[in-house]
Amino acid sequence: MAAAAFLARTMPVAFPDIAGLVRRRSFGAAAILVVLALAGLAGYLVSERHGLNLLREESRHRLDLLAAAVDSEVVRVTHIPGILALNADILDLLRQPAEARSARQPEVNRYLERLSAQHVDSLAVFVMDARGRVIASSDWILTDNLLGADLSHRPFFQAAIGGAPYRQYAVDGVRDEPGYFFAQPIRDERQDWKIVGVAVLKASIRGVERQWLTHDAPALIADGNGVVLLSAPREWRYASLQPLSGEQVAELVRLQFDGRPVGTMSLDIDVRAAAAGSVVRVSGRAAEALAPESRGRDFLVMSRNLPGTAWHLLVLASVRPVRAQAVAHGALAAAASATLILWLLYLRQRRRALQARLGAQAALEAANRALEEKVAERTADLTRTVETLEAEVAERMRAEQTLRAAQEELVQAGKLAVLGRLATGITHELNQPLGAVRTLAGNGIEFMRRGNLETAEQNLRIVCDLADQMGGIIRPLKSFARKSPAVPSRVDVAQAVGSALFLLDPPLRRAGVVVDNRCAAGEHFAWCDANRLQQVLINLIGNAADAMNDRSERRLEIAAATQPGGGIALSVADTGCGLPEEVLDRLFEPFFTTQAAGEGLGLGLAISRDIVRDFGGELRAENRDGGGARFVITLPAATGDNEPENNE
Ligand code: ADP
User: Fold this and answer.
1) How confident is the model over 466-479, as pLDDT tens digits?
2) Ligand 1 site, CB within 6 A
3) According to the model, what pLDDT value does residue 141 have?
4) Is the distance from CB of 629 to CB of 579 less than 8 angstroms?
5) Residue 180 in contact with residue 74, Cβ under 8 Å?
6) pLDDT band at 449 (very low <50, low <70, confident <90, very high)
7) Which residue's alpha carbon is at the smallest distance from atom 8 of ligand 1?
8) What atom in ligand 1 is closest to the CA of residue 594?
9) CATH number of the domain where residue 423 is located
10) What pTM, to 2 d.p., does this model score?
11) CATH number of the domain that 191 lies in?
12) For a Cys-Cys bond, which of 141, 283, 501, 528 suits 615, CB 3.0-4.6 Å?
């Protein structure tokens, strides 16, 4: 009971609503995934931001280095046009009329050649007259030299002839060499500082480009129009940072790039945004120049202005390593968060398990207490029941004792009733010897008075014999009438029959009953009480005698036999009136009698059956075939098993 109550209390805890549980679990799992994703994303973003900042720093540093390199390339040659403008030979050449210049030209050419050779990478140094024709050049020795070329349309000439020194990147039309053009007006003091020509230096910045090529990250210089002048990779040269219109391209080609493929590809870089470091994706044709693994990828681009020019130096750095690291950091953050969440879940689970265990323990203790209370209650109930039962048992034992006493009394009463029946016969039997005793005693007194002592003595001897005879009549009666408890013993059935017949002898004789006793002494031994068996036999024989009163044939047959089962069957049969149906049905009922009032109590057979049953036997009645009734007593045979050893 207590266990069932305990289960009923704990079941809802152990098996809550399954659907609700699944819903909560799914929601929890989704929430954890979201948290992990957010942690991963945050880790990624922070790492990327940090990585990009580092990359910016790195790019800035690189920009500084590259700018310094460009600067050094350009700065070391900036003074040369100034020197040229002051050179006397050159001035002299310019003062000559055009047709007379050929004589002085070679000398100036060689001078320019030497000057050029002194400065590595300065490609060409040349002098133009006021009309824009090249009149002396350092590359005079080459077949495709600039001598005689008309460069009057070029912006450096236009600017210088106008009086302003010029610096500009351009590609010369002869050797397709890009270069930085320094143009300086040459004034003649003799002609009142009039501009008579222009000294031009075309400086190569290829050295810088070569340096860049050693870097694995793209770098470039774009001019004020956003056209790439120098680049690594080289394929980006003449590309534009932003898409250019057709007119812009035409103008640039005409003035500055002399037919080069300017603006045919755009890098899509905003220089202003790049100043702070922006991320761009190099795609399209521009990407083809990159290594295959860098194509279509994002780059951090940083730019800075080259001092004194409208040029911008730009460096690009792949953000791929930064992103890869950010992914790793994101994964790490997610993993760390997962570990943290798992740890928290583990702690929560442990706490729950602990609570559940404590709850179960408390429930168990409560169940135990309830059980103990119930047990105590039941024990008290049982004690009460046991006490009641003990009282009942004692009561029953008392009742049984009373019943047994009553039965004993009844048996005794039955005995007395039998004695009463025998009394008449006994009285009659005693009357005769008593009368004789009386006469012999009276005669004896008379003989003594007369002195005839001999005769008196004879009379007294006869009196003694008669007294013995009367004692012989009374003794069996005394032993029969004795009130004794039933004590089973080994009883010779024939002896019990003989005693009964002896007691009933007088009435049987008077009634003229022929007794056929077939029981032989020492043949059949039953396990019962001899006195009680005698009582039963006296009842049966007395009834038989009564039943044969009106009959002409009065024969009583008594026989004993051993039954197949081992018991002893003792039968008392008569030739009397027999047992009609209605009598047979009620034969053993107490107080059933067919005798006249005052003659029979109707208890004889009832008591007899009780006595026989007490021994473990049975008493039954039946009608004989030839008329008359037969009563059969079955008794347990006296065997070694039921006989106590001290019985003898
Ligand atoms: P009682 O002898 O005082 O009547 P019993 O119990 O001994 O009481 O007998 C009950 C009745 O059974 C008798 O009144 C009689 O009618 C019937 N009875 C007993 N024995 C015989 C018998 N041998 N033959 C015919 N009837 C019998």
Assistant:
1) 998 888 888 777 77
2) 539, 543-544, 547, 574, 576-577, 579, 583, 587, 592-595, 600-602, 604-605, 629
3) 84
4) yes
5) yes
6) very high
7) 602
8) 14
9) 1.10.287
10) 0.47
11) 3.30.450.20
12) 528
